[in-house]
Amino acid sequence: MTVQKLILNEEALAKLGLGERAVYLIEYDLHSEQKIRKNLISKEEKKQLIERNKLAREFRNKLLFTLKFHLRATQHLESCWIIDESRLELAIDELEQFKAEMSSKGFKNVDERLRIIPILSTVEGIQNYEDKKTEFLLDFAMEHIQYLEKAEKKRRIPNGTMWRCKKAYEIVSELMGELKGHKRYRELIDTVEVLDHLIGKVETILKREKNLE
Q: Which residue, of 95, 121, 147, is where some domain finishes?
């Protein structure tokens, strides 16, 4: 995967009506699961197709986990995510490993299905990216707030889910720093505070439950 950081001349970009920074998009179109037509395939072919669909689903879930929790990307469209330039090299390394693993499992054309694309945009276009980023971070935080609210009621939570909640707090707290001038920044602060409060509350409940055992 050959992706170079763009060397930008702010004055020249301004003359062209473009923003002073590039946006790096991760676009993907992973292999979808295939329908199994029982009357048209043998038992062995059906078995192979079931395994292939399982792998396709696992790779899709793994990519989403990598985008959210490793690369700290923010979703722009369903299969289009944004990363900061500071995470470009990490993204290249992670996605190359991911594609190599897919290829080793028999999936074809992985280079065409997963790419990083640098994009220059107008000031308005960059504002649109920031709007999408803000919306994603709010949704990301709220998703984990809901997990914690359920945990508070049930007085239990899987370790993996608790890890994700803490990681979500860490990620949103970091990325929202890039949006200090955004009109919804105060909303981000309030939402992150709720997430942090619930993490502490659920941890306290879990400690009490453990002491009662």
A: 121
